[in-house]
Write a structure and sequence with these properties.
By secondary structure, the chain is of the alpha/beta class. It has five domains: 8-85; 89-188, Beta-Lactamase, CATH 3.30.450.20; 208-275, Helix Hairpins, CATH 1.10.287.130; 284-442, Heat Shock Protein 90 (2-Layer Sandwich); 455-578, Rossmann fold (3-Layer(aba) Sandwich). 49% of the residues lie in helices and 20% in strands. It has helices at residues 8-17, 26-88, 111-115, 120-123, 128-131, 134-148, 190-239, 245-275, 288-306, 326-342, 396-402, 408-418, 473-485, 496-505, 522-533, 550-559, 571-578; strands at residues 92-99, 102-109, 153-158, 165-175, 178-188, 284-287, 309-314, 321-324, 348-357, 365-374, 423-428, 432-442, 466-469, 491-493, 510-514, 540-545, 563-566. It has a five-stranded antiparallel β-sheet with strand order 2-1-5-4-3, sandwiched between helices. Strands 7-9-10-12-11 form a five-stranded mixed β-sheet. It has a five-stranded parallel β-sheet with strand order 14-13-15-16-17, with helices on both faces. Helix 14 (496-505) runs parallel beside helix 15 (522-533). The longest helix has 63 residues, at 26-88.
């Protein structure tokens, strides 16, 4: 070990702590030299470490700077990527934050934003009041308020500046459990709005056309039935007069032809209403056994003339009454039984009903199957597929031999579907056919029988005071002549206004009221007469009308009429009305 100069730090320490030691003294020289050497080694190692730390620090600083630059470049790249994505999407993304009570735009991107003139450099950092058109501000501000409250909010509005229709969905963004931003996603819906407007216009036009068609059908029904009423009415009266046998045949032919024309008119009107979707059901409690008996009684005379047996079969478990439209159910049954009689030369026709499925629980409908079986000519298998087509017969020879338009079964099939069921048949040529259909209907209590006016309150014979309100001259003459031939002295007016004046100034027992009349129609006139008499109701009012749809009958009842006789007038029913009965609303 060198015995060179002692380390300065060692000399300071000796002077401070051992001033009595002489480092140059022989007894101390070796020890001081050893300690001094150690100090020199430590100083060299410390210098080496310092240099190493400096180099490492410089390298770390350089690496950190490199990472920072790479991170910034990566963030910039990602930010640029998402900015391009946002800018290229067809919609618009807007982010807003709340600053001093105002909503400030922090981001606005998207193709739609550029089309609206909302460029990022002009919008970002601006308040909603500075960005939005004044006409849109209130709605947008309210929507942002709602979203800032934590609720997803949808808004549809027209941009007042461009006229573009927009849909915006605003959603809150949370940090640490509180809303810090609202993100609004917007898309253009101008084309959708235009399509909606076009659909609404098309729907309005279709409904207007539908109403016009319905009105046309009602007017056509009235305009055809009104003169037909006079033709059949006067022919019926003439048939009851003293005619020669030859003339009686001629008049009977007129009546038969007129009734066939009436049936055709009814079928065409019903089919038109069904096809237009304007035929509505009017369900009510219906007793099934009387309904089947009534259908059978209508055809009993025709069956006897042809030498056929006409049977009705009421199956076990069939409920006494159900809630259903009686007019439409009866219409289907009349059509099927009428066809069975038409195409059966010998044997039988059988009308029946059976219970297919009882209600599963209270309030649910039951399922009934009605059948009409016959021993008639049957239908060839290759021609059965055309049976329910409108205006279609099995073949043209059938039309020539048996008559008909081919509408009856088409109407029946559609009515059955309206009643919630299905229709079908089985048939074998030469052995007969079985037509069957189902309906679904809730159980009902037996309807109370309609009580006719008390005989004591209804004068008999020629003492009956009658008012006829009818605008058509020939129909006034027809009803007036019919009544005068039976000893009555009716008064006659030609519109609803005169009917109101007569009914409120003179006592009448019965008013026969047409519906479509000038100045005031029959419904308005009836309501006015009922209002005049109050609780006492006043005279009985019976509609004489060519409007025969169920909704027309409902309107008559709502106006206060006691019943309805359809034109052409059935004089047997009119005679019963004169005797105090209420006419059956099913009469067509």
């Amino acid at each position: 070990m060198s015995e060179g100069p002692s380390h300065p730090l060692l000399l300071r320490q000796l002077r401070k702590h051992a001033p009595h030691v002489d480092p140059l003294a022989p007894e101390w020289r070796a020890l001081v030299a050893a300690i001094s050497g150690t100090y020199h080694e430590l100083q060299q190692e410390n210098a080496f470490l310092s240099h190493t730390l400096e180099v490492a620090s410089a390298e770390l600083t350089e690496a950190n700077e490199l990472l920072r630059r790479e991170g910034e470049n990566r963030v910039a790249s990602i930010s640029d990527y998402y900015r391009q994505v946002l800018d290229s999407q067809q919609g618009m993304i807007i982010c807003v934050q709340r600053v001093d009570g105002d909503f400030v735009t922090t981001l606005c991107r998207g193709e739609l934003a550029r089309r609206l003139g909302l460029d990022a450099d002009k919008v970002e950092g601006k308040t909603l009041a500075e960005v939005a058109h004044s006409a849109n501000f209130a709605a947008l501000n309210a929507a942002y308020e709602n979203a800032w409250g934590g609720t997803d909010t949808a808004l549809t509005y027209r941009n007042a500046r461009t006229g573009i229709e927009l849909f915006a969905l605003m959603r809150p963004r949370y940090e640490d459990g509180r809303v810090t931003e609202v993100i609004s996603s917007c898309v253009e819906i101008t084309a959708l709005k235009s399509a909606e407007a076009e659909l609404r216009e098309a729907k309005d036009r279709a409904e207007a056309a539908d109403r016009a068609k319905s009105e046309f059908l009602a007017v056509m029904s009235h305009e055809i039935r009104t003169p037909l009423n006079a033709v059949l009415g006067f022919a019926s009266m003439l048939r009851e007069s003293h005619l020669s046998p030859e003339h009686t045949v001629w008049v009977s032919t007129i009546c038969t032809a007129g009734e066939s024309l009436l049936t055709l008119i009814d079928d065409i009107l019903d089919f038109s209403k069904i096809e237009a979707g304007r035929l509505s059901l009017l369900p009510e409690p219906v007793a099934l056994a009387p309904l089947l008996d009534a259908v059978g009684s209508i055809f009993l005379q025709r069956a006897l003339v042809k030498g056929l047996t006409l049977e009705t079969d009421f199956g076990p478990g069939v409920p006494a009454a159900v809630q259903i439209d009686p007019h439409r159910l009866r219409q289907v049954l009349l059509n099927l039984v009428g066809n069975a009689l038409k195409f059966t030369r010998a044997g039988f026709v059988r009308l029946g009903v059976e219970l297919v499925a009882a209600p599963a629980r209270a309030g649910e409908p039951c399922t009934l199957r009605f059948t009409v079986a016959d021993s008639g000519i049957g239908i060839p298998p290759e021609r059965q597929d055309r049976l329910f087509r409108p205006f279609s017969q099995v073949d043209s020879s059938t039309t020539r031999q048996f008559g008909g338009t081919g509408l009856g079964l088409a109407i029946s099939a559609r009515l059955v579907r309206l009643l919630g069921g299905d229709i079908g048949f089985t048939s074998e040529p030469g052995r007969g056919s079985v037509f069957h259909f189902t309906v679904r209907a809730p159980l009902a209590a037996l309807p109370a029988p309609s009580a006719p006016a008390a005989a004591a309150d209804f004068p008999a014979g020629s003492a009956l005071r009658i008012l006829i309100a009818e605008d058509q001259l020939e129909n006034r003459m027809l009803v007036e002549d019919f009544l005068r031939d039976r000893g009555y002295q009716p008064d006659v007016v030609e519109n609803g206004r005169l009917a109101i004046e007569a009914a409120t100034s003179r006592p009448y027992d019965l008013i026969l009221m047409d519906l479509l009349m000038p100045e005031v129609d029959g419904l308005v006139a009836t309501a006015a007469i009922r209002d005049h008499f109050g609780a006492s109701r006043g005279p009985r009012i019976i509609a004489l009308t060519a409007n025969v749809f169920p909704e027309d009958r409902a309107r008559c009842r709502a106006a206060g009429m006691d019943g309805l006789l359809a034109k052409p007038i059935d004089f047997k029913q009119l005679t019963r009305v004169l005797g105090g009965e209420t006419p059956n609303s099913e009469t067509r």
